[in-house]
Amino acid sequence: MKELFELLAEYNAKTNQELLGILGAQTPELLSRPAGAYHGSILGVLNHLLQADAIWLRRLAHQLPELGFVPPELPAFKVGLKDVVWDSLPVFQPVREKVDELLRRAVREMAPARYPEILEYRNIKGEAQRKVIWRILLHVFNHQTHHRGQVAALLDQFDVANDYSNLIWKF
Amino acid sequence: MEALPILRTMLHYHAAATRRTWDLVQGSVSEEEFRRELDFSWGSLRNELLHVAFVDRSWLALLRGEPEPPDDPFESFRSMAQARAVADASLAEVEFCIAGLTAGELEVALPGLDGTRWQILLHVANHGTDHRGRIICQLKALGKPDFEQDLVHHLRGRF
Prior knowledge:
The complex is a heterodimer. Chain A has five helices and two strands. Helix content of chain A is 56%, strand content 6%. Chain A has helices spanning 2-24, 28-32, 42-63, 89-109, 133-157; strands at 118-122, 128-132. In chain A, helix 1 (2-24) packs antiparallel against helix 4, helix 1 (2-24) packs parallel to helix 5 and helix 3 (42-63) runs antiparallel to helix 5. In chain A, strands 1-2 form a two-stranded antiparallel ribbon. By secondary structure, chain B is mainly alpha-helical. Chain B is 65% helix and 0% strand. In chain B, helix 1 (3-28) runs antiparallel to helix 4, helix 1 (3-28) runs parallel beside helix 6 and helix 3 packs antiparallel against helix 6. The interface between A and B is large, with 42 and 39 residues.
């Protein structure tokens, strides 16, 4: 069901844009402040998400020729899901926006006939894996929502107003 | 590829992950910690967890064409068991809804609601994921354990 994934891709990009708008009004110190979160700070959580999305996009593009436009556009980085690769908002934001656009375009270009196919790839430990493509797409967008929820909790902790997450009110 | 298996997957995941979160809370948090005011969106674990349950049952009532049930004040829930009973009832409603869904119903635009049935159900699942992310942060702030919430982990063994 292409419409559902297109909605998730649009929601994802729009919500990230709203979140980036909120973060742009904060000090660099607040974004890097250790907060006892799973990835250390707001920027740490966002780096984890961006790395994960880029990794999934690369795996999908490796198998699906119609996503050949993806790899040249992806950021190059050494994978370390707990590392901060993009260490400030001005560095992070354009990469986030680029990857969100790639996700939208990938969903647009992917025919529904692909959804039940099996993606074969290696995880970051090098182990062979197999997963159904539609479940991977669901995971990618759900993973973003989960971690944006964590960022919202950190913003609450820092007394920064945030209300960007509800899907149903955006469309 | 139809939307029905996708929504079923998301809503089963929502119900399972929410129950697991409740199990974790009940197994690791004291009654005082459950009610303690924290600097998070709904103020306490109790309020955050109840908010998810209230939102779930409201949307499900609206999908059935019924009025939204009134939300009892958070303060009226004096124990985890009392709050859990509400959550369990709303998750049972989610599962009942999933079991009875047909592909044709998903596309129906609902009068007075912004969206079709599938969009609203997707919102219900997404809303739960967002709040479980917040709850995990609350638990971490209280020094409690967590669990792997990723959908791919939930689906492990099913590709």
